[in-house]
Design a protein that fits this description.
Elements: H1 25-42, H2 46-64, H3 78-93, H4 99-106, H5 109-116, H6 121-137, H7 140-157, H8 162-175, H9 182-202, H10 209-256, H11 258-261, H12 266-271, H13 273-283, H14 288-292, H15 297-310, H16 312-317, H17 322-330, H18 333-342, H19 344-348, H20 354-367, H21 387-403, H22 407-423, H23 426-439, H24 443-466, H25 470-495, H26 509-527, H27 539-564, H28 570-598
Helix pairs in contact: 1-2, 1-3, 2-5, 3-6, 5-6, 5-8, 6-8, 7-8, 7-9, 8-10, 9-10, 15-20, 18-21, 20-22, 21-22, 23-24, 23-25, 24-25, 24-26, 25-26, 26-28, 27-28
Amino acid sequence: MSSDDPSPIVDLAQINLNAASSSSPLSLRLHDALRACSQAVESGDLSGSDSAVAAVIDLLNSAADPPQSDAESVVPDARVCEELLVEVQRFLSNPSSNQMVVDALSLDLPKVVAKYGALSDKCREIAGTIVEFLVSTCSPRDMLSILCEALDVHIRVSKEPTYFILLFDGLAKVFVQIQRHHVEQVKAALPIILQVLRAISSDCHEEASDAINILFEAAIRIGNSMQEMCKRVALISRSRQKSIVSRCGSLILQFTKFLPFCGLSYFGLITGSSLASATAVISKGDGDGTIDCFSLSMDGAALAVVWGHITDDIAKTAGEQLKSVLREIQNNQTARWQAIGTLKYALSSNDYPWELKSNTIDLLLSITDGCNTEGSDDDYLDFSGFVPSLFVTLQAIEMIMMGSFDASLRKKAFTALRRVISEIPSSHRFDILKALITSSVSPSLTAILIDLVRAEILTENNQKCVRNVKDAQFEIGSHSSSWSSQALELVELILKPPEGGTPALPDHSEQVLSALNLLRFILIRESTGQTNQKTVLSEKVLQKAYSEWLLPLRALVTGIEAENEKDNSELANDIFCALNPVQLVLYRCIELVEDRLKHS
């Protein structure tokens, strides 16, 4: 085969097998050692097979690491090494080779052939086919451990990037073949992969830059394999969950028959009133032991209604029309708060599959469908008692938004989040949103919540413009003023973190951008007279925003850009992409504040 042939497969047909006289003595010894290894393993001689495998590995090591002379440095003979690799490849791919022999050799071969990859392009090509063959024929889980062990052994003695390229390519092929315990396998392999990348990057030399680039390309292939594996796992998981839900339907149908007998209605279950009555009856005259048996009763109440929403047959078995129950809840604000609070049990538990949570979100959307909370007398109702349960429900919805593999479920969860927030009275809505923002550990989620605050300011202002009833106008006006002034607290929370210092850029660029957009929105509204309320941007507030929020942030962004200006790496490009929109909005905010200060 020509050395210019791009094919990664070594064409053994082009090798003259009868030209034994042209083979090196080491190659002939390896041929005999491999044959002895095969005979020992096939005979079941454990001690002899271990010795035979060790003899093969020692021969390969002696060629890759020849004994050094005091007088001069001895380098491996690339032609001899090529012959040895061809001999190994020929032996492994021989149809008559026993799989037990291949498995025995696979324990140590990757460690050895990885060294050959640095000797020549031809050696790297043949060594690559050997690793690929082992990956395709041996147990994926075993090969994952073997390849990781080989990485660990090499990184202790050498930082030569070419040693690791073949092993990384092998790992990329192994991950897509793993069928079970995917997360555990990733957790086991990831530390050594990162350790190798970190060690080689810290000991980088200019002459090795090409090899390091190839190594990182191999690392990217590993990442792509992990991503492909996760996608496959997600599809399998959804399929299994749908199957489980389908199989459970007949059982739930039987259990549902007990609901009317026990006097439990869907309305009472979803609002919690039936459970409260039942618990009072059960606990009467009994100790805590009896009540402890019903610790999951609220979970059961929520799930019973969810199942009724999934299948009409189940609802009919319960002797109810769920649609009429939902209409009753939609027309009763207190009942909606109770129902939303009850669904937290199904949404927040880690014991229930994503498919069931998706159905719970569907029920939540049905409960809040067509409900017009704006302009209602919600603020005259006592909402304080519902705050804890609704807050937990909102946090559970957030977890679904951030944790689900299913894009359609994440989208539904976001719609549900907005619906539940709209159910909260205006006088409590900002406090709930602020609590969600301060408890968020995800910059992306924080950015979404800040955008919701901006939408609330616009909604309140639009309502004020279209209402002519004096007392309603006064009420909305006061809330709108409060929203704008309190929104500035959120801007300060993000741009001037309470723990001190400046925002963590570029990691938190999403939430910083949302905070800047919120500030720009308030500045433009007041500067263009789009609000009839009293201004919240006094000269004192503007000076504070300018000197304590915007100028320190500008210095931070400028500094990060200067540090990465001459860096052409992919990481530097990602940093510039993250900071560019932040910089654009930041400079616009500075212009608006400076203009307001000139005319104040």
